[in-house]
Amino acid sequence: MPEAIKTVSVIGLGYVGLPAAAVIANRGIDVIGVDTSDTTVAAISNGDTPIEEPDLDILVRSAVSSGRLTATHEPRPADVFVIAVPTPFNDKKSPDLSYLQAATESIAPVLEKGNLVILESTSPVGTTEKISSWLAALRGDLHFPNGPDGKPDIYIAHSPERVLPGRVLIELVDNDRVIGGITPSCSERAAEFYRLFVKGRIHVTDARTAELVKLTENAYRDTNIAFANEMSLVCEHLGINVWDVIQLANRHPRVEILKPGPGVGGHCIAVDPWFIVDSAPDHTPLLQTARNVNDRKPYTIVSKTLQLAADANAKTIACLGLAYKADIDDLRESPSVEIVKTLAGKFQGTLRVVEPHIDQLPGDLDVCGNVELVSLDAGLDQAGVVILLTDHREFAAVPDQIPADTPTLDTRGAWSKSRTVER
């Protein structure tokens, strides 16, 4: 490994930061994990894992017990600083960079000549340059990158995370990485760092291109999901099974329609297209339409559920799943949460929520007087209506566990049986 890279500081120990810290520490590099949450710092210091991800608990426990990974609230000197904090949007769908700016300002006092600062948080175009400006305003004694030539005192680059929850530890290592420095020397310095633990190919570009690459990847996914969701509405209107339509259409060699669902969740796909829209509102009608299609989908699920409950005179609705995708505990931007919250305000009976990956309801549901977090057996017991919101593996056999006349709504197609026949 390059001699200069002996200590790495990861700012933000969430769904991306903690796995990255654990992977790097298990490569024999000292890692200082920084987070503002007392609960997170305490858990990691004890060798525990505050988030659910396959095999992450093993890596964290190993890294902490070896002394390679430590968790703290305040940044300490290091050779590399990896920033992995949230970049949400505000009520006006504009990027909220307050977490990122706070993280950047927190490392300013401990920066030393030769350090590398990497932004991994998905961010609007131009954010990496803002980090350089924020740091330059606080550390006038250091030279920061401001052009294509010359070597700065502090190297700054962007390398967006591209991992899928449930496969984070695999994809952190195996996926290709896009690395964009503010200057070519920044790019090369960052590439040296990622070569320490990434097996995938390293693709070097400039910072602004790297920022837009990640946003483009997620906007592409969002647009394709919107098409599937819109087709599900068309099929319902025409009385046609959407799952049969998609299965048969995908037999075409150049067609690959995604699955529709209750909406789009997660911190990336549901958020990132708005960053592009914010930077170019007059040039993104398709992205804006796709976002609106996906944002409206939860409310069509609410209407269908209420109609089923009214027809069945149901007193209870079993809501299966809150996470935004299967077999994880991530509730960020989850359409399932929005559906349950909206139902809680409209349904006069009880909502029994089954989410095997959490121990308590999120705050916006916990305050609802008619929402309960229960086991699967309790949720299905005499349920008037059953709706599948997240296709966790625990729910695969539910159709066999409830009476045949119990109304069900499968928003994921997990219980759908194909009626097509090959001859």
Give a verbal description of the structure.
This protein is an alpha/beta fold and 423 residues long. The chain has 2 domains: 194 residues, Rossmann fold; 172 residues, 3-Layer(aba) Sandwich (Rossmann fold). The protein is 39% helix and 13% strand. Helix 1 links the parallel strand 1 and strand 2. The protein is globular. The mean pLDDT is 95.
Multimeric status of the protein: single chain
What integer is the average pLDDT? 95
CATH topology of the largest domain: Rossmann fold
Tell how many strands the DSSP assignment holds: 13
Share of residues in strands:
5-15%
> What is the CATH top level name of the largest domain?
Alpha Beta
What is the spatial order of strands in the main beta sheet? Answer: 3-2-1-4-5-6-7-8
Shape by Cα distribution: globular
Biggest β-sheet, characterized?
8 strands, mixed
- End-to-end distance, in Å? 59 Å
For the record, the count of structural domains works out to: 2
Structural class: alpha/beta
Descriptive keywords:
423 residues; eight-stranded mixed beta sheet
Structural topology:
Blueprint: E1 7-11, H1 17-25, E2 30-34, H2 38-45, H3 56-65, E3 69-72, E4 80-83, H4 98-107, E5 116-119, H5 127-138, E6 155-158, H6 168-174, E7 177-181, H7 184-194, E8 202-206, H8 207-238, H9 242-249, H10 272-279, H11 285-312, E9 316-320, H12 335-346, E10 350-354, H13 363-366, E11 371-373, H14 376-380, E12 385-388, E13 408-410
Parallel strand pairs: 1-2, 1-4, 2-3, 4-5, 5-6, 7-8, 9-10, 9-12, 10-11, 12-13
Antiparallel strand pairs: 6-7
Helix pairs in contact: 1-3, 4-5, 8-9, 8-10, 8-11, 10-11, 11-12
